[in-house]
Amino acid sequence: MNQKTYLQGIDVIVVGTESAREAVQRLCGCQQCSETASTSLEYVLDDIRKGEGAAAYMLADTLGCPNCHAPIVETTLVQLRESRQSNWFELPLPETEVVLVEESSLVEAQRLIAECESCGEDAQITFDYLLDAVTGCDPTKTEYLMCRPAKCPRCFREVNEKTLVIPE
Ligand SMILES: [Zn+2]
Ligand SMILES: [Zn+2]
C-alpha cells in the first residue's frame, strides 16, 4: 500500500495484494450474504493504515467475499469478524477480588440500611457501598458475592449488591 499519487489533495492509495489479503481476513461476509453488513471496505482499509488522514483507495486486485465469493470493491459494505469487534472481552479486568459476604457481615451491613430503592425516594448508593464499609475492602477492586440476599428493614424487600439504598 505504498504507491501514492496525488489527486486534489487526497491520497489515492493503491491497495496491494498483501493489504487486500489482510482486509479480507477481517471479513466474514458482505452485503450480498449478510444483512448486517454495515461497514464499508474503505473503513477496514483505513483501519489497516491506522487512519493516517483521508484517502481514496484503488484495489489492485478484485477481492472476493470469504463467505459467498461475491466481488468486493472499495465501497462494498462488509461484515467484520466477531473477534475484531469483541476485543474488549479479552481485555484483562482490573484486578478484581470476589469476596464472599458471610452471614455476620451481611447482617451488619443490613443494619446500616435505613431504606431501599423500593421504599425510599432518594436511594443513591448501592448496597455494596455498605459492604465496603463493613468489610473494609477496597471498593474499586472488590466484587461481592452474598451468601443470601439482605432484606430492607423497612419494606422487607430483598436487597442485593446493586440495590440502591439509603444508609442510616
Ligand atoms: Zn458475501
Ligand atoms: Zn425498602
Structural category is alpha+beta
- The best one-word shape is elongated
What compounds sit in this structure? zinc ion
The biggest sheet, with number of strands, parallel, antiparallel or mixed sense and barrel status, is:
3 strands, mixed
Q: Give the helix level as a range of percent.
A: 10-25%
Q: What is the topology, as strand order, of the major beta sheet?
A: 1-2-5
Radius of gyration of CA atoms, rounded to a whole number:
27 Å
What's the SSE pattern?
A: EEHEEHEEEEHEHEEHEEEE
| Number of E strands | 15
Average of pLDDT: 86
Spans of at least 5 consecutive residues whose pLDDT stays below 50 are: 84-90
Number of discrete domains? 2
Strand coverage percent: 25-35%
Tally of alpha and pi helices: 5
End-to-end CA span: 65 Å
